[in-house]
Amino acid sequence: MTDLVERAQWIAETVLLPDAAEVDARGAIPPSHFRVLAREGFYGIAAPDAGLDFETIVSVIETLAGGCLATTFTWLQHHVAVIGLANTTNESLRSQYYADLVAGTQTSGVASAGALADPPRLRASRTEGGWIFDGDAPFVSGWGIVDVLQITGNAGKTVVNALVDAKNIPSTRYDLVALDATATVRLTFDKVFVPDSRIISEVPAEQFLGVQHLGSRLSGAMPTGLAVRCARILESHGRTEMAESIAAQAAEVRSTLDAALADPQAMFAARAAAANLAYRAAGAVFVAEGAGSVISGSHGERLVRQALFTLVTGSRAPMKDALLDVLTS
């Protein structure tokens, strides 16, 4: 779907990138960013009937990430609920929310890190008429921006996914060094009852963990998108050979990430390589811009901080180990 990628490029260059420095400085994403993405059909790209292949979705994410990483990261969370509702057996829940989520007239975030933690930080236990969610969900982005939230609780051998309203849950906002505009919080669930009518799915824990590499591939498009943007900035500074080198390395990392779809254990190292590339590419921009990079608001300082974000976002222990090996060798 070349047309979709071209529209993503137009949005990145004419809407997101011109605002990127202000978004970073103010710590807030203009609602107009999300309205444009909705108008152009980008909230429904993960819907099965959209007919998009995985490669196109990755290209869209990478392209948008090169415009404004905060907007892209917040928008990216939305698609978890779209996929969940597309596959749910809860027909009533799907009929109530799915069409609006695909259209982007309602938007969603996701809270799954608590279920993935070891030991789990957010647990789900069965009770009459529904489930009790208890614990906390760290690093939930889009709080105060999104309308609903897909939450995931660990029930032992099963994980439970539910769609709840994104309000009236105690929250503590993180003060992030980068992408603070994502309005990322820690949510506290004090024995919160979620009725069966709001349950999306109950999935074997092994199955849930078995598809996490797909999310890692999608999130891997953010550091490659950042690296490509860095290459373009280096080109604008007359560093053509360096820009070409970064672009070539981005293509190589992209291929490694794609290959890891068939080997989930290889995804950790591939994802680490992507983050490492973004980190080095941003450092190159910082140096190329000279002393001006140390001034708040410059491309260099913003990109370096955003690259730091890609080093840790979505990270699990094997990815962390792989990155530490690269960074200390």
From TrEMBL:
<protein>
    <submittedName>
        <fullName>Acyl-CoA dehydrogenase</fullName>
    </submittedName>
</protein>
<dbReference type="GO" id="GO:0050660">
    <property type="term" value="F:flavin adenine dinucleotide binding"/>
</dbReference>
<dbReference type="InterPro" id="IPR037069">
    <property type="entry name" value="AcylCoA_DH/ox_N_sf"/>
</dbReference>
<dbReference type="GO" id="GO:0003995">
    <property type="term" value="F:acyl-CoA dehydrogenase activity"/>
</dbReference>
<dbReference type="InterPro" id="IPR009100">
    <property type="entry name" value="AcylCoA_DH/oxidase_NM_dom_sf"/>
</dbReference>
<dbReference type="InterPro" id="IPR046373">
    <property type="entry name" value="Acyl-CoA_Oxase/DH_mid-dom_sf"/>
</dbReference>
<dbReference type="InterPro" id="IPR013786">
    <property type="entry name" value="AcylCoA_DH/ox_N"/>
</dbReference>
<feature type="domain" description="Acyl-CoA dehydrogenase/oxidase N-terminal">
    <location>
        <begin position="4"/>
        <end position="104"/>
    </location>
</feature>
<dbReference type="Pfam" id="PF02771">
    <property type="entry name" value="Acyl-CoA_dh_N"/>
</dbReference>
